[in-house]
Design goal:
heterodimer; A: alpha/beta; B: MetI-like fold; 15 helices; 0% strand
């Protein structure tokens, strides 16, 4: 990479030894009440969006959080950035409890936790110029950078690959990818230590996705910012969480973390059946594979049905209703998130009957969808 | 590996890898973006109906503002009773002798039957009174609508529930009937019925009554718009930066609700003009001798004027039709300019 971009010197580098825990989340719970009834509306149920998750993000680490739609990934991100008030659990930033901190109490660390949003068409105020959008956070936190805010904004625009001359433009004059870069510049304007990126590329064209992911990766590595990268696309996460000393991925299902581990463990030695199913769903293009190694045939798992309603999740293991290995024990007892024998350190799985740590093809494909199974049987005959 | 980050050239959404396109110094001025408001102004200027209507509306406001100057140049005022001053111009019933309501080089729009006021100055001052009241009511309703609508939308929950119920309750009132019934009540709050009512009390009462039942539609629209804006991610981005609620409302929400405010107030103002005229016509608004648009209609519909001098109705009637039509067309054009996607 040949880039002579203006990168600010890392601040207070002495206090931030990589590997120290930056953000600790313990037993985080968020339930949304469901109101109903007439004439008196009362709470008739709880959407258990996030139901007791534990995470630790270390200084400078990139942490991927994956799961399908509605599993609580975005809610987790919004809880950590304090856009939502947790129902229970504990969030600590650098050891300081911020679970129920008010806006004023949060003020000193607000600038250290920033967020990149999903929809670049909704995350920029259409009435403000790019310059105002990016300098807004500095204005709110009364930060006067050397040389003035405008100079800093132009620097940031350059860092994210935009023309500094775009300072006086309005968001509607930019494409989706450019808008997302503006969003990144806004997040960087406060020199954060942790950026929660909530599906930052899912609203973009596939061709632009790679560029934005590369930008985030570059920012992450060169500025040493810890990332909590939320995505539903395992391929995007794999692409982001790479080439770095600390690279972990957590898989969520229905408000719970079911498996967490370093990148290689999750992608090549998964233990939880759901992780297997997710990985099997990632399309892979092997045409002219750039790696020299032989690409082995992958296992094939097709689940049936949808994620159960988070209003009344299944008892015990939440995945049991769609799992091919489910037994009575799974309904009766919730599997703890533990390190299974044969796993690397830090690779935790919540399953009573874990799979083999491989993603190579099995003797028989697992096809749980009866319609698909019938179709394939017909084709075989 | 080449750099994944292309410097994106000004003006294009194509991402150019590598060298930024050379930017001549002269092009720098073009790099200042056009704000949504500026784009709206450009679209509006292209709409001929809108521009003509705007000129007509401005003309009426100028007349209202400059009424004292014009009547000074013209040399008359609306309070002179020409039936006493110049009795030779009127017959025994008080109707102007000359045809067409006494239109002449001296009295451009004729004379009023009965008291013999000069119609031209009376109309000028009538427009002044009516527009003044309508503008005051519009300002008051817009302010109330912003405060209550944005508050309800932004805070949500219980506040939203109660403000919305108040809006529903007030919307259920029969407005015209309420105006007529409550005007004397409001006036009597200020002065005892036995004393003579000063003009300003009537004006204040009119403004109060129309404001009370006028702000709900705008309030409701702003509540809806704010509710939608509140869920947008740029509001969350401001919150993540630690912005206090006051700043979010001022800097993030208010600039984005300017459109409905402008569109709605251009529809509301002519409505208030007609409503005020209606009240004065019915005799609960402005009364003689204070000049007022609606009160001129009331005068024109009396038996004396109806049977002897139909010309008297002409000038206030035509001017009001022109004003209301022009203002409504202006409102349409403003809406179209702000929202070019809605085809009519």
């Amino acid at each position: 990479m040949t880039e002579d971009l203006v990168l600010p010197a890392p601040r207070e580098a002495a206090t931030d030894a990589p590997g120290e825990p930056l953000l600790e989340v313990a037993g985080l719970v968020k339930h949304f009440p469901v109101k109903g009834g007439f004439p008196i509306r009362r709470t008739v149920g709880q959407v258990q969006a996030v139901d007791g998750i534990d995470l630790t993000v270390h200084v400078g680490e990139s942490f991927g959080l994956v799961g399908e739609s509605g599993c609580g990934k975005s809610t987790t991100g919004r809880l950590i950035t304090k856009l939502l008030e947790p129902t229970g659990g504990r969030i600590a930033y650098r050891g300081k409890d911020i679970t129920h901190a008010t806006r004023r109490q949060l003020a000193p660390i607000r600038s250290e936790i920033q967020m990149i949003f999903q929809d670049p068409y909704s995350s920029l105020n259409p009435r403000q110029t790019v310059g105002k959008i990016i300098s807004g956070p500095m204005e709110i936190n009364r930060i006067e950078p050397e040389g003035g805010r405008e100079k800093r904004v132009r620097e940031l625009l350059e860092i994210v690959g935009l023309n500094p001359e775009h300072y006086n433009r309005f968001p509607h004059e930019f494409s989706g990818g450019q808008r997302q870069r503006i969003g990144v510049a806004r997040a960087l304007s406060l020199d954060p230590k942790l950026i929660v990126a909530d599906e930052p590329v899912s609203a973009l064209d596939v061709s632009i996705q790679a560029q934005v992911v590369n930008l985030l990766q570059k920012v992450q590595q060169e500025l040493g910012i810890a990332f909590l990268f939320i995505a539903h696309d395992l391929a995007v996460v794999r692409h982001f969480v790479v080439r770095h000393f600390s690279q972990r991925v957590a898989v969520m299902y229905l408000g719970k973390v079911i498996e967490v581990g370093d990148r290689d463990s999750i992608y090549t030695r998964p233990r939880h059946p759901y992780t297997h199913a997710l990985l099997s769903a990632v399309p892979e293009v092997n045409v002219g594979a750039e790696d020299d190694e032989e690409v082995p045939q992958r296992e094939r798992i097709r689940l049936a049905g949808d994620v159960p309603s988070p209003i009344s999740p299944p008892s015990g293991c939440r995945f049991r209703t769609r799992c091919w290995k489910a037994e009575d024990k799974c309904a009766a007892e919730e599997p703890p998130l533990i390190q299974l024998s044969g796993n690397h350190a830090g690779h935790l799985t919540a399953c009573h009957f874990p799979e083999e740590p491989t993603i190579e093809a099995r003797d028989e494909d697992i096809v749980l969808d009866p319609a698909l199974a019938a179709l394939e049987e017909d084709a075989d005959d | 590996m080449t750099s994944p980050i292309g410097i994106e050239g000004g003006g294009t959404s194509v991402i150019a890898d590598g060298e930024p396109p050379p930017n001549a110094k002269g092009e720098d001025e073009q790099l200042i973006g056009r704000s949504p408001g500026r784009l709206m102004w450009i679209r509006f200027k292209r709409d001929r109906t809108g521009v003509i209507s705007a000129y007509v509306v401005i003309f009426f406001f100028l007349i209202g503002l400059l009424a004292p100057v014009i009547s000074w140049l013209y040399g008359k005022n609306p309070y002179t009773v020409y039936a006493d001053e110049r009795p030779e111009l009127f017959d025994s019933a008080g109707v102007p002798v000359q045809p067409n309501g006494g239109i002449s080089g001296e009295f451009w729009f004729g004379l009023e039957p009965g008291n013999g006021y000069d119609v031209f100055t009376k109309l000028l001052y009538g427009i002044r009174t009516s527009l003044g009241i309508a503008v005051a009511v519009t300002l008051a309703t817009v302010l109330t609508g912003i405060v209550l609508g944005v508050t309800a939308g932004y805070l949500g929950g219980r506040t939203d529930y109660w403000i919305s119920r108040v809006i529903d309750f007030l919307l259920a009132f029969p407005a015209q009937l309420f105006f007529i019934a409550s005007m004397p009540v409001v006036v009597s709050l200020f002065v005892s019925p036995r004393d003579e009512t000063p003009v300003y009390v009537r004006v204040v009462a009119l403004i109060l009554v129309m404001w009370f039942l006028g702000w709900m539609s705008l309030g409701r629209i702003l509540r809806g718009t704010t509710l939608a804006l509140r869920e947008r991610e740029f509001i969350e981005a401001a919150k993540v930066s630690g912005a206090p609620p006051g700043r979010i409302i001022r800097k993030e929400i208010l600039p984005n609700v300017v459109t409905p405010i402008l569109v709605q107030s251009t529809y509301m103002l002519p409505n208030f003009v007609t409503a005020e005229a209606g009240l004065s016509f019915l005799g609960v608004g402005i009364v003689e001798p204070t000049p007022d648009w609606g009160q001129m209609f009331s005068k024109a519909s009396t038996e004396l004027v109806m049977q002897n001098d139909i010309t008297y109705m002409f000038f206030p009637g035509v001017s009001m039709i022109i004003f209301v039509v022009a203002f409504n067309l202006l409102g349409d054009s403003v809406r179209d300019a702000f929202d070019p996607k809605t085809a009519r």
